[in-house]
Design goal:
- The chain has 686 residues and is an alpha/beta fold.
- The chain has 4 domains: 89 residues, Ubiquitin-like (UB roll), CATH 3.10.20; 170 residues, 2-Layer Sandwich (Alpha-Beta Plaits), CATH 3.30.70.20; 192 residues, Rossmann fold (3-Layer(aba) Sandwich); 124 residues, Dimethylsulfoxide Reductase, domain 2 (3-Layer(aba) Sandwich).
- The strands form 8 sheets. Strands 14-13-26-25-24-15-16 form a 7-stranded mixed sheet, with helices on both faces.
- The N and C termini lie far apart (63 Å).
Length: 686
């Protein structure tokens, strides 16, 4: 450790730290443009100048290493004059168009010009202008404002793993761009907007919409993939205008995937279900709530529980799932399923279906095997964590499944399940690793031999030393934020008269009444013609067109709700705006329906539902924190039959239009048209 004195305050920092880190440890704010804690040091903006004793000129604190006994002055005349000069240079060519700039009000250049700049400029020459560049439908560029901090270049290369950005020319003619004009091909491009310290890179969908001081800010969590990133929702009145990431070192650091950032904004107000509908004379017609509940009650009269089924969707909150399960139990039905994809998930033990290593634990692993998954498309933020670990070295990665660009190097071991038992040289790599891990994609279990794959993968983890007392390297990667919570609540076929039916059995005519809670990700055309369908959801998507009764629900941004991410972390989302029209929170709809159906549920408020959650599964009693799980139980998921060597199906390339919210978003449709021009448009009602 090195002892450094900063403005009279003595601090100890690790050897090899920079002066700016020592200043931050002392509680001193140092201005910066190019420096960022998660990016490599560029040292090219020079805004972080400080005075170091016995050094005759100001030094850039981001690139200057500390030394034991160093004395630093952050607000001396030398440091102030140096920063003032740097700011004067930066503003020589800046257009000073703050009144019409989308970054106005939250611009680092604005703030630091006021705090550290002069009140005039000595330069009267004409300012340069740079042609606007087109980087795709998400990031808007006004490169005349660029101060060449190179944060965007370093993020694209180091974090996103897509080295498409760079600089051409030198001096005042330097321009940041893609060399050949093209759309950025990364699922993390929206983070460039957050990183840009000026208005050179802003959000194209958000352009000229509002100013930051007009927004109401709500902390919540994302559910459009299974990472469960911490987000901040910015709203004005009844509209959501922006979704931004919040820093959460254990989950998403400070990054957010593009679908999670952009899709909810415009999908919130398009194709929405805002009032009940009831089918009369073969056509859906608007109705009152009481009429919708009465239609359900009339149809359920005389129907035994064995002929009633319920399916929970992928974005559904835990409160709604437990309420629907309690209602189905009261009706005598054990026909429950939350696995729309048919994945052979064994819910007997939690470690069979969670990401046991934890997301942050990826950085502690020293070998990785990916089976039947493309993390780049299924969980881009988690994939960035894998890339971060791979850049540190000594982290061999093997892949069984499709050959895809994952943004890091790997050894392709095979296309199908047969490679699980025949890893070749990679088997020795896993056995020699101290903390090996594997990631099993949920899609790998959505096959006829899914149970066999789960069993074989678990046995591989056991034989490769992944299951130890202080380390569990077996990880199942889910695709949406509502999938783990439903499994935790046991929303799967249960015991009952004749046994519970899964979704496949229900679609084969096993039920007369089918309650779909936000469930759209299965082949709706398989529902038998005589089945009475109750659809409860927030968008007019695939299943809504087949419904006999529609109950309008709320999206994840329109309610206080509980979700569980892929690692099993219980998190709370909060209401940012109220649902439109007559739409209501889903658990309240089920609670109201239960009373008219003659099976009134025992809770009346949110606190009561959450007490019920904790009673069903104690994991819901602990929110936000997650203890690292080691391996203690020797029981395996079971054999599940023989493996089929059919290659794993590739992850759908249309990352942007996955799920009801993605399909309802015009911005995501534009992304799909840009990146997949040959693909047919995916319409919600198809």
């Amino acid at each position: 450790m090195a002892k450094v004195t900063v403005d009279g305050i003595e601090v100890e920092v690790p050897n090899g730290s920079s002066v700016i880190q020592a200043c931050e440890a002392a509680g001193k704010e140092i201005p910066r443009f190019c420096y960022h804690e998660r990016l490599s040091v560029a040292g090219n903006c020079r805004m972080c100048l400080v005075e170091v004793e016995k050094v005759p000129k100001p030094v850039s604190s981001c690139s200057y290493p500390v030394a034991d006994g160093m004395v630093v002055k952050t607000d001396s005349p030398m440091a102030r004059n140096g920063r003032r000069g740097v700011m004067e240079f930066l503003l020589i060519n800046h257009p000073l168009d703050c009144p019409i700039c989308d970054q106005g009000g939250e611009c680092d250049l604005q703030d630091e010009a006021v705090a550290y700049g002069a009140d005039h400029s000595r330069y009267m020459e004409e300012k340069r202008a740079v042609k606007e560049k087109h980087w795709g439908p998400l990031v808007k560029t006004v490169m005349t404002r660029c101060i060449q901090c190179t944060r965007c270049i370093r993020f694209a290369t180091e974090i996103a793993g897509v080295p498409e950005l760079g600089a051409t020319n030198r001096g005042e003619n330097m321009e940041v761009g893609t060399y050949v004009e093209k759309a950025l091909t990364t699922e993390l491009s929206g983070n460039l907007i957050d990183l840009c310290p000026v208005g050179a890179l802003t959000s194209r969908p958000y352009a000229f919409v509002t100013r930051p001081w007009e927004l109401r800010k709500t902390d919540s969590v994302d559910v459009l993939d299974a990472v469960g990133a911490s987000i901040r929702v910015d709203a004005r009145g009844p509209e959501i205008l922006r979704v931004l990431p919040r820093t959460n070192e254990a989950v998403n650091e400070e990054w957010l995937a593009d679908r999670s950032r952009f899709a909810p904004v415009d999908a919130q107000k398009r194709r929405r279900l805002d009032r009940p509908w009831v089918k009369r004379d073969g056509a859906l017609k608007q109705a009152e709530w009481v009429d919708a509940f009465k239609a359900i009650a009339d149809r359920l009269k005389g129907v035994s529980g064995e002929r009633i089924g319920a399916v929970a969707g992928d974005l559904v909150d835990a409160e709604s799932v437990v309420a629907l399960k309690d209602l189905m139990t009261a009706l005598g039905s054990a026909n429950l399923d939350c696995r729309q994809d048919g994945a052979a998930i064994n819910p007997v033990r939690r470690e069979f279906y969670t990401f046991n290593t934890t997301i942050a634990g990826i950085e502690e692993a020293d070998a990785l095997l990916i089976i039947g998954s493309n993390p780049r498309l299924e969980a881009p933020v988690l994939n960035a964590r894998i890339r971060k670990r791979s850049l540190l070295g000594k982290f061999p990665i093997g892949v069984i499944g499709e050959k895809a660009d994952l943004t890091y190097g790997y050894t392709h071991l095979g296309d199908g399940p047969g490679a699980i038992g025949n890893l070749g040289d990679f088997a020795e790599v896993l056995s020699k690793a101290e903390r090996p891990m594997l990631i099993l994609g949920r899609g790998a279990l959505a096959r006829p031999d899914g149970a066999a794959i789960l069993g074989a993968t678990w046995r591989l983890a056991e034989s490769s030393g992944m299951l130890e007392e202080g380390w569990n390297g077996f990880n199942l990667l889910h695709r949406f934020g509502g999938q783990v919570g439903a499994l935790d609540l046991g929303f799967v076929p249960g015991a009952g008269p004749g046994g519970g039916k899964d979704l496949a059995d229900m679609l084969d005519g096993g039920v007369d009444v089918l309650w779909l809670l936000g469930a759209d990700e299965f082949d709706v055309s398989r529902i038998p013609a005589g089945t009475f369908v109750i659809y409860q959801g927030h968008h007019g998507d695939r299943a809504a067109a087949r419904a006999d009764v529609i109950l309008p629900g709320a999206t994840y941004l329109e309610k206080d709700a509980t979700y569980v991410n892929t690692e099993g972390r219980v998190q709370r989302g909060r209401l940012a705006v109220h649902p439109p029209g007559e739409a209501r929170e889903d658990w309240r709809i089920i609670r109201a329906a239960s009373e008219l159906l003659g099976h009134k549920l025992s809770y009346d408020d949110l606190a009561g539902v959450r007490r019920r959650l904790a009673a069903v599964n104690p994991v819901f009693g602990t929110v936000a924190t997650l203890a690292r799980r080691g391996w203690a139980d020797t029981a395996a998921p079971g054999n599940g039959g023989a493996l089929d060597d059919t290659p794993f199906a590739p992850t759908p390339a249309n990352y942007w239009q996955v799920g009801t919210i993605g399909r309802a978003s015009p911005t995501m449709a534009e992304c799909a048209a840009t990146y997949l021009p040959a693909a047919a448009p995916s319409l919600a009602a198809e």
